[in-house]
UniProtKB/TrEMBL annotation, chain A:
Protein name (record): High-affinity branched-chain amino acid ABC transporter permease LivM
Domain High-affinity branched-chain amino acid transport system permease LivHM N-terminal: from-to ranges: 17-109
Lineage: Bacteria, Pseudomonadati, Pseudomonadota, Alphaproteobacteria, Acetobacterales
Keywords from the UniProt entry: Cell membrane, Membrane, Transmembrane, Transmembrane helix
Domain of life the protein comes from: Bacteria
Length: 437, 239
């Protein structure tokens, strides 16, 4: 391009950018007037009153305008987006290889890091629960490609299974854990049968309804589930028969090992329990991916008709994906019940399914490490920004949008082939058009 | 003559109220290449799918090596020793070429190593691209992959649905010559469905013409090529 045309193009580009930013500001104005501009408060006399905050709206609209302008300027400065070079992909892949062991080591030693208190451990337990749920849902969504919006139903089945079995029959956690998994898997198959012929959005609607049905049944079947009041007094897990009572005493964990009784013991124990359960989920997923069943799941995600043409039994392949995904949710659910000691239908709303699905999608569907990172960012980040109060959801939403803009295929978007006969090579996202697969 | 590899006897197939196949009878002998030609919507693909049991024939029978497979579930039929290359190739786009090929071997459960060597000998391009994703291959390479994937189950009968679809003439010649090789060297029986009647009939020992769900003509490939009806309808007049 010659110098004159470049000079002519510049004012045009400037005007275009300002116009673009103005439109962005207009959209922001439309959004923030109802969201931020008008606020209902309780007046001193006890009635509702409308408070107007036009100053805040102006600041936000200004930020949107300036932000959009800065983004356009950065784009123009950087020029056309270059695809990542092969060397860079390779470097990222090498770095990625060390991320998993580092994270794992960190997770294992976390309770012994000085400064780790009750709060950090509880947060760790929460994050690991979502990591496990993400890995479980990944079997259904990431590997088999079956969009499930009602995954929390199986989490609920697992939690209620343990709670009811333990409070009614006095069964221990270790007996109930596999039972809860089996029951959840059974419900997974039950859901799987009617939706065998559905895919994509149709499947999503049915699974969404299934999740709601389970929750509504839990609320209304009060004689069994306690209805909205939930179930209280769920027994805590024991460590090979040793209890974690705060006061110590005979038969307790502290007494047996001759250490000072401390309420932290149970938290540490719960932490390692969920870590072990999550790692079990991970290990089984990774193993299965290399087995014929796992490969059939991935093939099913890619092309169902081709699967049929190759003689794959599509019915059993789908049902095993639903069953296994549900089983891990069931494990996680019974862990949730034993950790909380109290469960109610409120813990199993649609937003939980949405968060778990968001973790899987943001992590990069099918990537184990990506899902762990996404869970850490989403759940951990949500806690870190607790001080922001009502702005927290805004940060949360903004972070999700940002991840999808910067990494449209998820945090870890490449898929490592599960087999290699001669030479192993992973293929970066740049070789595949966006929107495929 | 020994029993035919595949026989369809008076098959009727319908989608809802629409009759796609009406009283169709064809035979495919051992080590034969049989071509089925017909216009769009004549029922060619339906005939192949009926063999695979999806959809099943409402009336009539499908016999594979003398065994009635009319009412068998699709995944069981595909384990008997026949393989299908579906219309539009349908390779698994995010899986590597190697993974695609191994998917073909999975159900039959033969040792994949010698089969891989055989496929790579037939299509050296696939060996070069074994680590590449299926979706990134060219159309011709995807067709090679689809055929190679089907061959990984060591079939005795190969069903091919429009392998020339959307491919350059040079590539079509390569694909067809590979099919001929498989037939002559490996003794593979082939049922080929094609719109590209000229080349397909040249390749075939025998052929059938399907019009509106009925078989209207049959004969050897050369006979059909010479028939004026075939020339007018499928070969663009004085070809």
């Amino acid at each position: 391009m010659s110098a004159t045309t470049a000079a002519e193009a510049r004012p045009n580009a400037m005007a275009g950018a300002v116009k673009d930013a103005a439109i962005t500001a207009l959209v922001a104005l439309g959004l923030f007037i109802p969201i931020v501009g008008l606020r209902t408060d309780v007046s001193p006399s006890g009635t509702l009153m409308l408070r107007q905050r036009w100053g805040d709206v102006a600041i936000l609209v200004g930020i949107a305008f300036a932000g959009r302008l800065a983004m356009l300027a950065w784009r123009a400065f950087r020029g056309e987006a270059k695809p990542a070079s092969a060397a860079r992909t390779e470097a990222i892949r090498k770095a990625g290889k060390s991320v998993a062991p580092v994270l794992l080591a960190l997770a294992v030693v976390l309770p012994f890091i000085p400064g780790t208190g009750r709060y950090e451990l509880d947060l760790g337990i929460l994050v690991l629960t979502y990591v496990m749920l993400g890995w479980g849902l990944n079997i259904v969504v990431g590997l088999a490609g079956l969009l499930d919006l009602g995954y929390v139903a199986f989490y609920a089945v697992g939690a209620y299974s343990y709670a009811l079995l333990a409070t009614t029959f006095g069964l221990s956690f270790w007996v109930c854990l596999p039972l809860a998994g089996i029951l959840a898997a059974f419900w997974g198959i039950l859901l799987g049968f009617p939706v065998l012929r559905l895919r994509g959005d149709y499947l999503a609607i049915v699974t969404l309804a299934f999740g709601e049905i389970i929750r509504v049944v839990l609320i209304n079947w009060a004689s069994l589930t306690g209805g909205p009041n939930g179930i209280t007094g769920i027994p805590r897990p024991s460590f090979f028969g040793l209890t974690f009572s705060a006061g110590g005493g005979p038969g307790s964990f502290a007494d047996f090992f001759g250490i000072e009784p401390s309420p932290t013991h149970r938290v540490v124990f719960l932490y390692y329990l969920i870590l072990a359960l999550a790692l079990l989920t991970n290990w089984i997923s990774i193993r299965l991916r290399r087995q014929p069943l796992g490969r059939a799941w991935e093939a099913l995600r890619e092309d169902e008709i081709a699967c049929r043409a190759l003689g794959i039994n599509v019915t059993t392949t789908k049902l095993t994906a639903f069953a296994l995904g549900a089983m891990f949710a069931g494990f996680a659910g019974s862990f949730f019940a034993t950790r909380q000691g109290f469960i109610s239908p409120e813990s199993f709303t649609f937003i939980e399914s949405a968060i778990i699905l968001a973790i899987v999608v943001l992590g990069g569907m099918g990537s184990q490490i990506g899902i762990a990172l996404a869970a850490l960012v989403m759940i951990g980040g949500f806690e870190v920004f607790r001080d922001l109060d009502e702005w927290r959801m805004l940060v949360f939403g903004g972070a999700m949008v940002l991840i999808m803009v910067v990494r449209p295929r998820g945090l870890v978007g490449h898929r490592t082939p599960s087999v290699a006969l001669r030479e192993k090579r992973s293929i970066g996202a740049e070789h595949v058009a966006e929107g495929h697969g | 003559m020994s029993a035919p590899m595949l026989a369809i006897e008076g098959a009727w197939t319908r989608y809802g109220a629409v009759e796609a196949l009406r009283d169709v009878s064809i035979e495919v002998g051992q080590r034969e290449i049989v071509t089925l030609v017909g216009a769009n919507g004549a029922g060619k693909s339906t005939l192949l799918m009926t063999i695979c049991g999806a959809p099943q024939a409402q009336k009539g029978r499908v016999l594979f090596e003398g065994r009635d497979i009319t009412r068998m579930p699709t995944h069981e039929i595909m384990r008997l020793g026949l393989a299908q290359v579906p219309e539009g190739r349908r390779v698994f786009p995010r899986m590597s070429v190697m993974e695609n090929l191994l998917m073909g071997a999975q159900v039959a459960g033969h040792d994949p190593k010698p089969l891989l060597d055989q496929v790579f000998a037939l299509f050296p391009r696939l060996e070069e691209r074994q680590a590449q994703r299926g979706g990134t291959l060219s159309g011709g390479e995807q067709q090679m992959l689809a055929i190679g994937r089907a061959m990984m189950s060591k079939p005795r009968l190969l069903l091919l649905d429009e392998p020339s679809l959307g491919l350059a003439p040079l590539i079509v010649r390569q694909i067809f010559s590979a099919i001929r090789d498989l037939n002559e060297k490996e003794g593979l029986t082939v049922l080929l469905v094609e719109q590209n009647a000229n080349q397909a009939l040249r390749l075939a020992h025998r052929g059938y013409v399907l019009v509106n769900g009925r078989i209207t003509l049959r004969g050897s490939g050369q006979e059909l090529l010479a028939m004026p009806e075939v020339r007018d309808a499928y070969l663009g007049g004085g070809h």
